[in-house]
From TrEMBL:
<protein>
    <submittedName>
        <fullName>Uncharacterized protein</fullName>
    </submittedName>
</protein>
Length: 86
């Protein structure tokens, strides 16, 4: 028998806790790539935007827009799933 203070029953059932943990991990992973795109593109625009042709700047702006749309989609799906679960 364990004498750990954490050995008591958690406030949430274990399967629900595991599901929430997986959801957070999945959403986090889904956000990493788009956030990295936003980070890199804004950095490049800040450093080189004044020397690039306008088409290159627009290309990076489109990458940012697509990444933000992807993150909005992931959040929308999570909120929709949460509403369905209630």
């Amino acid at each position: 028998m364990s004498t750990s203070p954490y050995s008591g029953q958690s406030p949430e059932p274990k399967p629900l806790y595991d599901l929430k943990a997986r959801l957070i991990q999945t959403v986090g992973n889904e956000f990493l790539a788009p956030l990295e795109i936003v980070h890199q593109s804004t950095y490049l625009l800040a450093c080189f935007g004044n020397t690039w042709e306008i088409t290159t700047c627009i290309q990076h702006l489109h990458r940012i827009q697509e990444a933000v749309e992807q993150m909005n989609s992931v959040l929308g799906k999570c909120l929709e799933a949460e509403r369905e679960g209630d």
